[in-house]
Write a structure and sequence with these properties.
The protein has 376 residues and is mainly alpha-helical. 62% of the residues lie in helices and 0% in strands. It has helices at 5-15, 42-51, 54-57, 78-96, 100-109, 118-131, 140-151, 158-165, 183-207, 212-215, 219-231, 242-268, 274-279, 289-307, 310-332, 339-346, 351-360, 364-375.
Length: 376
């Protein structure tokens, strides 16, 4: 049966939870635009807009943890991370009766403003921008919103823009106070934590940077290993799919925990509408105290045994040097920029902003090639 837009909106009204954001209730876009004739809902259109953007496609060439020259064909870049966040967020949203289209759009765009060379690249660009007199520095969540608004001009719905602006995880927006956002945005925040915890364990173990003996000391791994042993009694640690099975078990455990705990919090706080969510003092999409403790322990383990290891630190420092060198070259001689960016400087746009935008959009590979070309 072919459904019209009105039919789809009615389905949302009937099927989604009362505290889910409905497409029919969207406050619209920054610039009103005539909706197309395909009967797609507004958040579905936002998903397409993000996927078709150049900035989204470049995520495939940007570092997650291991930099371009150090990763193999199976190590994550920003692109698979983005997709893993999408599918985890969809699972949570589906169980809680939330708007999956809105959740998907936010998840797809949450890292669209990330720099090359991962968080190390972000940190270096942040330092440089502050040195150039920009007190706000550089922060990839804020730049994600800037990217979709100013650079790509996607004209997304305000609900998706809000989710990008207020995205935060343990890496993001430290010390920044933000008003409680809708549940779909909160789901993406937590899905991001689940995704990077799972895939960083996977990448770290497969590469040999993390040892199996050490990770066995963490509670999350112990829970996963015990469950896998019960499900598959014949499986061994050296089996090809053992790591994947355990990581999957960790992800499943965290998804189940956050769904059950969030549902209890929604009932406990008598949440019956989107407005109730916004008026809540604290975020409602949360892990149980026990799961949060296990997750924090694993986060600390990954910091010590993966992110801060000599191999990763050396790679990070190299990426930071490339970003700093490129920034100074472009800043001191705008003629080295592509013509359209040089013209922005000639037209009076802040030189540091122009250079920042250009570098932030680069892939690792392109940044390295530019650096080699300009340094020679």
């Amino acid at each position: 049966m072919l459904r019209s837009r009105q039919d789809l909106e009615q389905l949302e009204a009937e099927k989604l939870a009362p505290y889910a954001v409905k497409s029919a209730d969207s406050v619209g876009r920054l610039v009103p635009e005539e909706e197309d004739n395909s009967d797609r809902l507004p958040f579905q259109r936002d998903v397409d807009k993000i996927i078709w953007s150049k900035s989204f496609r470049r995520l495939g060439g940007k570092t997650q943890v291991k930099e371009e020259g150090d990763r193999d064909d199976h190590d994550r870049t920003r692109m698979p991370h983005e997709l893993e966040v999408v599918f985890i967020a969809q699972s949570i949203a589906r169980r809680l009766g939330l708007n999956e289209d809105l959740t998907t759009a936010i998840a797809l765009g949450h890292d669209i403003g990330h720099t090359p060379f991962g968080h190390a690249g972000e940190q270096e660009l942040n330092r440089i921008m502050k040195e150039k007199g920009h007190k706000e520095g550089f922060e990839h969540n804020r730049h994600s919103l800037y990217t979709v608004d100013e650079l790509e001009k996607l004209n997304l719905t305000n609900e998706v823009r809000e989710g990008l602006d207020k995205h935060k995880s343990s890496y993001d927006q430290a010390g920044r106070k933000v008003k409680t956002s809708h549940l779909e945005a909160q789901v993406v925040n937590r899905a991001d934590e689940i995704a990077y915890t799972g895939h960083d364990i996977d990448d770290g173990l497969r590469s040999g940077i993390i040892s199996m003996e050490k990770i066995k000391e963490t509670k999350l791994w112990q829970i996963a290993a015990e469950n896998i042993a019960k499900k598959y009694p014949s499986i061994k640690e050296d089996d090809q799919n053992y790591i994947q099975q355990c990581v999957g078990e960790i992800i499943g455990y965290l998804i189940s925990d956050i769904c059950v705990n969030t549902d209890a919090k929604l009932q406990e706080n008598n949440i019956g509408s989107v407005e109730d969510v916004r008026n809540s003092k604290d975020e409602l999409v949360q892990f149980s105290a026990e799961a949060k403790s296990h997750l924090d322990e694993m986060g600390e383990f990954l910091r010590k045994n993966f992110y801060q290891t000599e191999a990763i630190k050396t790679s990070n420092e190299h990426g930071q040097k490339i970003i700093r060198d490129l920034f100074e070259i472009y800043y001191n001689d705008p003629a080295t920029l592509p013509e359209e960016h040089e013209q922005l400087v000639k037209d009076g746009k802040d030189k540091a902003i122009v250079v920042k935008n250009y570098i932030a959009g680069m892939t690792d590979k392109f940044a390295k090639e530019e650096w080699a070309r300009l340094k020679n």
